[in-house]
Amino acid sequence: MHAQIQLVAQALARAERILVITGAGLSADSGLPTYRGLGGLYNGHTEEGLPIEAALSGPMLRRDPALCWKYLAEIGRACLGARPNAGHFALAELQRRKPGCWVLTQNVDGYHRAAGSPVQRLIEIHGELSPLFCMDCRQRSFELAEHLQRPLPPRCDRCGGVLRPPVVLFEELLPEAELGRLQTQLALGFDAVLAVGTSASFAYIVEPVLRARRGGGFTAEINPQAGELSAFVDVHLEGGAADVLPQLIRHISSDKI
Ligand SMILES: [Zn+2]
Questions:
Q1: For residue 59, how far is its CA from the centre of ligand 1 (angstroms)?
Q2: CA of residue 114 relative to chain centroid, distance
Q3: In the predicted structure, residue 40 carries a pLDDT above the cut 50
Q4: What structural domains and CATH numbers belong to the chain?
Q5: How far is the CA of 70 from the centre of ligand 1 (A)?
Q6: Is the pLDDT confidence value at 129 over 60?
Q7: Going by C-beta distance under 8 Å and a sequence separation of 6 or more, which residues neighbour residue 231?
Q8: How far apart are the CA of 208 and the centre of ligand 1, in A?
Q9: Residue 88 and residue 94: Cα distance in Å, rounded?
Q10: What is the chain's mean pLDDT, rounded?
Q11: Which has the minimum average pLDDT: 82-86, 95-99, 184-188, 203-207?
Q12: Whose CB among 84, 136, 191, 211 lies 3.0–4.6 Å from 15's, allowing a Cys bridge?
């Protein structure tokens, strides 16, 4: 393991353009339940007997906002109740040392920003939980925590419309602006791609890894277990993100950069 960490550290130290892709496994180390996209706080079905993908979908938010919000609120409370961990802080440090280092995250908890990752080099492909905005008049509300104490769904104080977070629900499209930023950066190419705590079942996770490989770049994964991605990376570091990432950054001594 130690030799492997050194190998990854050396590759990252040499690289200028680095893409770090993060998923639920990173925030699991903060105590958040791992979930697939927005969903897997639950295994399978809600107490209403619905698949969680249906409860947390765009159509459900419009049809039965109270039901959808019941589960959005659980995600919101989980995220507000936890904090970024050593893995998030290590990545923010890597971005400080490497001005060509980008973070692409599937997580909606906002922990990368909270840990100090620069928003200019952060792509939150599934959106974020705050600020809420009104589905009718687009008025924004920065009071997620307060709304979670009140009856759901949260309402707009200007027009009474239903508020929602700017997250990508099931059956909704990925945000065009974020996809565009990702495509621009992928077109510029990356010398190294590091996937952290993601199960990689989405094309936009697998594609950057494959592209880096085709271009002769270095690829690595940090995950407690081998997954879909493991066959495609140069090095698989078996371990939790909050444990491995700080070790990795310590090995990238500043004199090598
Ligand atoms: Zn409104």
A1: 19
A2: 13
A3: no
A4: 2-33+84-129+173-256 (3.40.50.1220)
A5: 20
A6: yes
A7: none
A8: 39
A9: 10
A10: 91
A11: 203-207
A12: 191
Q: What would the two tokens of residue 144 be?
A: 């997620």
SS3 call for 155:
strand
Kindly report each contact of residues 178-182 with a partner whose C-beta sits within 8 Å and lies 24 or more positions away, as own/partner. 178/123, 178/124, 178/125, 178/127, 179/125, 179/204, 181/123, 182/104, 182/123, 182/125
Asked if residues 134 and 156 have their Cβ atoms less than 8 Å apart, the reply is yes
The catalytic site residues sit at 126
3-state SS, residue 104: strand
Q: How far is the CA of 133 from the centre of ligand 1 (A)?
A: 8
The protein residues having their C-beta less than 5 angstroms from ligand 1 (an ion) are: 134, 136-137, 139, 156, 158-159, 161
Q: What is the pLDDT of residue 43?
A: 60
How close is the Cα of 158 to the center of ligand 1, in Å?
A: 5
Per-residue model confidence as pLDDT tens digits over 106-127: 999 999 999 999 999 999 999 9
Tokens (6 digits) for 41: 């706080």
Distance CA 144, CA 232 (A): 40
Ligand 1 centroid – CA 138 distance (Å)? 6
Average pLDDT of span 81-100: 96
Place 28 in a pLDDT band, splitting at 50, 70 and 90. Answer: confident
What contacts 227, CB < 8 A, 6 or more positions away? Answer: 199, 200, 221
Spacing, Cα 134 to ligand 1 middle (Å):
5
